[in-house]
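note to self — DONT lose this again. spent like an hour looking for the file last time. sequence + predicted structure for the chain T wanted, 284 res
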Amino acid sequence: MFAEMKSRYLILFTILGVFATLVIFMLIGADPVTTEIAVQLAFYIVVPYFFFHYYWSKNPDWSLSEVLSTKGIKPWLPGIAGMVLVSIAFSLTMFWLQLAIVSPAFPWLAELMLEPVEMPGGVGYEYFMLLTLVILAPIVEEFVFRGVFLTRFAAKTSMWGGILISSLMFGVLHLDFVGSFLFGIIASLLYLRTGNLLLPILFHMLNNALAALSMYVPIDEFFAIDWFIVTTMADIEAKAFANIIIMIISTLLTAWIIYRLAKGLKDRTEKHEITEPLTESEVQ
């Protein structure tokens, strides 16, 4: 399915769709909030819909069940929850590391990075952004990055070539580049290991849901993690030791997760069977 979809067309149509939306809404004098919503709709709904609809209309025998199924996901759910917690812990310590590097020379930039995100568009805007963050983005981005990009680049290079290139592109799209890059690798391996996009989608949704929760619930109410979360300039130094410890532990756990998910995939690279789930013999 995804092997027949041209990644370059998807990239081109996305750029053109977003640019055209920006130009149109600027020409009609729309306010920034309306323009941002329109761009999000173009990026996450309009362009993906026409791209995937084009290929589905040419191949009526295709079925979503080929890449999306609830079968066999239950045993994975506890592991996915654990992976999300490790991923978030790693990303939070990466944020501290960025602040620790930036603050001595550019304190104003560190203060800017610590500024809380404000929602300028009222309740309706907040609901839309929440829907986009928790539902639309995980579904569309997994179909795009783990479906189209991973499959196409793996076919052109190798399995690990596809994983790394698609994860790099995923990282560039997000502010937390390192954390998002490793997140992309784990999501790619989840898909390759099971042939089921639903698992990386759930992984992505849970991660984004916890990120969204942090926007609405004061961090000091999360008493279990407040001891290493950085919210002020003073925290950068005061919580340095805690962040270093969490960084070491989360890095080791991330490496272990990637190793465990990648185990058994090596021999499949020559066959390019990247959407078939591993059998028990392959896992062993």
